[in-house]
């Protein structure tokens, strides 16, 4: 089998570590520290844009791979076996059958109409105020801000998804559910490359206990919600109501429980981690914070969601944060259709798992040289001395420049490299609400506080200690929020 995979397999012409072509266990061994994003970046630097990272898996680092995998009504890329991790509880975000997914998408659409989102915004504002009050209590003191933003994300998710208040912001303490949730995601760091091993563990008594506990907790939330009568519709209301109206509640139970898991992960963790990275960037770039504060000072009400949608620098900061720190660093796996597919000028055989690591694609460089010439020797490229690295997606790709999203569009070379909410039929259905949460919190805190690192620290541990656990897990954000001193415009001199 090993000889076949190395010398005769359909992917034999794609470069990569030899042992990776033999078994995905090679990948697991190199991901035990949950640093898959760093590993893939090293592989990209060594092997180029197409790297064989498994017997039947390619990791592709060109921006064209993202629309190829997601765009188009007739797109035939499918979700691979990784998405069976929580079976039989299959929600919107992990349903592999395209027809079932499209049906569930229509059900979910009702929960995210403009009217529904406006109702959720009232709750977002209330929790943002609680977050600000908590920060006010520690004003001028060193805080680990991760917990504040995670409390906010989980409190909002609980209320919007299940009409349940976890009271973490009000009580200023962790809910036991967070530990269950984080421990469950942690196992995905080393085991994401081998979904079959996760399945074996979850089906074995005593195996993958953290993952099973996370799934069990999400199930309990949906079961409890079904017994609850609420005055204000939440997301679960629309999902449950659909099944009741169609007399399919019993048949839909596993799906509804899977939806609860989707709501928990997508509705809390992604917003929280983006806010952590965002305020890390504002602390590192006080000039960008000042520009934002000037913009916010020009608004009549920084809690006006409609006005915040049009605040250019605010939205530029959010977009730039998600570009540099995508919520999903290396996931987004898809499987090619049976007939194969052309990606960036190369044919990829059918039924091959494709990975598109956005963490690396957004900062991608390629070799440019006289005649665009490269000679391959074995599995490595030999480049002439005239070669140079050229940024292919964004100018100054590793720099935090929010202006590229409004006043300097020429700094965006390839928009395909930016898809924080995915594309096509798989675009995040909660995108509008997630952006409103980010805008609301950022505007409220930036209008009232300056944020900085404590003396002698630069906050780099936020990036350096980031873990790749399906979603990103930032390092500690140690900052000081100080009540803002409004900057007065200099008065004109009297003649």
UniProtKB/TrEMBL annotation:
Its cofactor is heme. Gene3D superfamilies: Cytochrome P450. It is found in: Membrane. GO terms for cellular component: membrane. It comes from the Eukaryota. InterPro entries: Cyt_P450, Cyt_P450_E_grp-I, Cyt_P450_sf, Cytochrome_P450_monoxygenase. Keywords: Heme, Iron, Membrane, Metal-binding, Monooxygenase, Oxidoreductase, Transmembrane, Transmembrane helix. Heme binds at residue 428. Coiled coil: none annotated. GO terms for molecular function: heme binding; iron ion binding; monooxygenase activity; oxidoreductase activity, acting on paired donors, with incorporation or reduction of molecular oxygen. Belongs to the cytochrome P450 family. This is Cytochrome P450. The lineage of its organism: Eukaryota, Fungi, Dikarya, Ascomycota, Pezizomycotina.
């Amino acid at each position: 089998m090993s000889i076949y995979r190395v010398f005769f397999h359909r992917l034999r012409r794609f470069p990569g570590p030899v042992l990776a072509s033999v078994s995905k266990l090679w990948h697991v061994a190199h991901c035990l520290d949950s640093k898959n994003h760093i590993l893939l970046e090293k592989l990209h630097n060594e092997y180029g844009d197409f790297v064989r990272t498994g017997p039947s898996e390619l990791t592709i680092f060109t921006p064209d791979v993202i629309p190829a995998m997601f765009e188009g009504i007739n797109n035939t890329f499918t979700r691979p076996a990784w998405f069976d991790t929580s079976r039989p509880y299959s929600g919107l975000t992990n349903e592999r059958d395209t027809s079932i997914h499209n049906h569930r998408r229509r059900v979910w659409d009702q929960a995210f109409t403009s009217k529904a989102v406006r109702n959720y915004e009232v709750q977002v504002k209330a929790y943002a105020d609680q977050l600000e009050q908590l920060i006010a209590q520690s004003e001028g003191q060193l805080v680990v801000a991760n917990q504040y933003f995670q409390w906010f994300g989980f409190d909002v998710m609980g209320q919007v998804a299940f009409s349940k208040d976890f009271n973490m912001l009000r009580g200023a303490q962790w809910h036991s559910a967070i530990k269950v949730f984080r421990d469950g995601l942690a196992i995905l760091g080393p085991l994401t490359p081998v979904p079959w091993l996760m399945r074996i563990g979850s089906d074995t008594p005593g195996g993958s206990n953290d993952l099973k506990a996370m799934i069990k907790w999400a199930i309990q939330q949906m079961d409890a919600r079904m017994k609850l009568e609420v005055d204000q519709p939440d997301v679960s209301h629309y999902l449950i109501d659909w099944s009741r109206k169609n007399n399919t509640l019993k048949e839909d139970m596993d799906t509804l429980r899977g939806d609860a898991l989707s709501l928990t992960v997508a509705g809390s963790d992604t917003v929280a981690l983006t806010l952590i990275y965002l305020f890390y960037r504002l602390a590192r770039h006080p000039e960008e914070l000042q520009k934002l504060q000037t913009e916010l000072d020009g608004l009549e009400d920084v809690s006006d969601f409609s006005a915040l949608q049009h605040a250019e620098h605010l939205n530029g900061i959010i977009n730039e944060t998600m570009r540099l720190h995508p919520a999903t660093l290396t996931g987004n796996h898809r499987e090619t259709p049976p007939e194969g597919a052309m990606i960036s000028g190369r044919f990829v055989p059918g039924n091959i798992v494709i990975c598109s690591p956005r963490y690396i694609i957004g900062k991608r460089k390629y070799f440019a040289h006289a005649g665009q010439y490269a000679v391959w020797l074995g599995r490595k490229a030999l480049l002439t001395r005239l070669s140079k690295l050229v940024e292919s997606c964004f100018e100054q790709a590793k720099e935090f420049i929010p202006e590229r999203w409004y006043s300097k569009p020429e700094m965006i070379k390839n928009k395909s490299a930016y898809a924080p909410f995915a594309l096509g039929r798989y675009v995040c259905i909660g995108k509008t609400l997630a952006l409103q949460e980010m805008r609301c919190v950022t505007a409220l805190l930036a209008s009232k506080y300056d944020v900085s690192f404590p003396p002698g620290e630069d906050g780099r541990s936020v990036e350096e200690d980031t873990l790749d656990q399906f979603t990103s897990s930032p390092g500690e954000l140690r900052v000081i929020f100080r009540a803002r001193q409004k900057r007065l415009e200099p008065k004109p001199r009297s003649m």
